[in-house]
Design a protein that fits this description.
heterodimer; A: alpha+beta; BirA Bifunctional Protein, domain 2; nine-stranded mixed beta sheet; three-stranded antiparallel beta sheet; 14 helices; 12 strands; 17% strand; globular; B: alpha/beta; D-Maltodextrin-Binding Protein, domain 2; seven-stranded mixed beta sheet; five-stranded mixed beta sheet; 9 helices; 34% helix
Chain lengths: 377, 241
Amino acid sequence: MTAEGAIEFEALEAQAASIMSLFGEAGYERVAPAFIQPASLFLDRTGEALRARTYVFTDPNGEELCLRPDLTIPVCRVFLQRGEQSVAAKFCYNGPAFRIQEGKPDPLCPREFRQAGIEYFGERGEAADLEVAALTIEAVRRSGVKSFTVKAGHIGLFAALLHALPMPERWRARLAHAFWRPHAFSEELAILSRPHDGLTLPLPEEEITPEGLLKSLESRGISFIGRRRPEEIVKRLAGKAADANETPLSKETVRLIETYLHIAAGMPAAFDAIEALFADVKLDLREAVAQARGLFTALKATAGDMPIVFGAGFGRHFEYYTGMVFQIEIEGAGMAGQIAGGGRYDGLISALSGGKRDVPAVGAAIHTERLLGATRR
Amino acid sequence: MGGKLIIGVPSKGRLMEATLALFRAGGLPIGKTGDERGYRGAIQGIGDAAVEFLSAGEIARHLQSGRIHLGVTGEDLVREQIPDADERVDLLLKLGFGHADVVTAVPDCWLDVETMADLEGAGALFAAEHGRRLRVATKYPMLTRRYFLSKGVVSYRTVESLGATEGAPASGSAEAIVDITSTGTTLKANGLRILSDGIILKSQANLVFSKVAGLHGGAHQSVREISEKLSAALPGPGADG
């Protein structure tokens, strides 16, 4: 359903006008970021999977540019351009995004589609999470979709669980890093729960220092090249050496993580199950669980009859999320049924500003062609 | 060109010489038609065949679109340029020349990186320390993406390499590379080392048939004849490594 035909164009425009007026009434200022963006901002954040679907080109000055594959990062740049004095802001937008689609053309996965969305910068608490999710649900409902499901998850809760479990910090980092890829995550769990024997280090343990590394390279006739620093190489070698002496993760720890990630149920059953699981093993995660329960209980109240399904392992798709995540879906409609989604991404502004600004953020976007399709079901 | 069978033959270098020699050895000598510096030819004995001299990359592309029916090109180019290669083309025959491995290589000084899994670990740390992804310079972004994903490597980004890819880590324009190598000498000279599970593809020149070109009548017979004669002209099994 591209908007090329006049009737589709009118229908999409009318739908967008109603969504934007809802966002405007809620205090969100409309912004219109550039279609053409510096490519590296996306490629450094979102990785090769999205790169393969991004139109990247080089202009005659040699600058690598892209057609925006998504609007969140461009809107973050608008926020950063406002400068230091702007500590909080609420933005809304409606406009095209562009993605390469492999295979046969599919009207519900067009290469050019319009996103309507909101981004709320500068607020850390559950109130902002709730506001963004509730407003997105309201926009979908007002557009005329009669029945949908809200799938939700919470990345922060998983981070809190990892923090509460006994293991070295670098193992937490490994598991958190692999979280986004369920298959790799299972492999990491398996590796960390096995004894680390049979490891041969390329350097004796006492020589694992930047100086020791450089000296060893010199004696082997290897020159040091590239931008990766000796300290990084040493850090990984030291980690490998320490892993060899570490007690593997216990069966109970592995089972707890796996059981947690499999929890998926409606509200409040999901949180009853989570509390029961954690009570069993006397993990003190009470505060984090209570906050998340409060958030999704409140969301359930605003969603009315629409079911909310909380999945502890849900949200493993966009690496920049750090807290609450949600997706509004028409059950059984596949990709075409994924009409809106969003979440909290507290690290993105810091990453985009090279660490100069640390601003929490939460946002959501609606795939407007799919929304229009859903209103006609 | 009518109902002719169109065959793409490499237009320069070792690949062209080896192709012409093999066709000659198979009793199918290729001659140029018209101007000696032109890019068209014919095969003696196969009346309905027209030869086009093209770059190896163009041959892969034209096999994908079906503009040519048959061609000699590297498997690396077929896999890189044709996303759904198995649906669009048949690799009829390995020709025993044009050997090149597509490999993942890192600076030899990375003593902590032996395997693709190590590369992922190094990439994750690199992103945290530098605020950007570890860059992999390559002329093979598709092959790189597919292979890295299959090995669970995601903490990187590709950068397009136009010139000498092996020089990218030393010059600082990338941290690691995916490139072709036949002997490994150039990699070594540039301070690079192939990862233990870093061989992506062992490539060589192939006779490739386009399944989407649409061929009718006696042309199929000609394809079979060319394939059989070239096969008979190849050195015995094992000799092509």
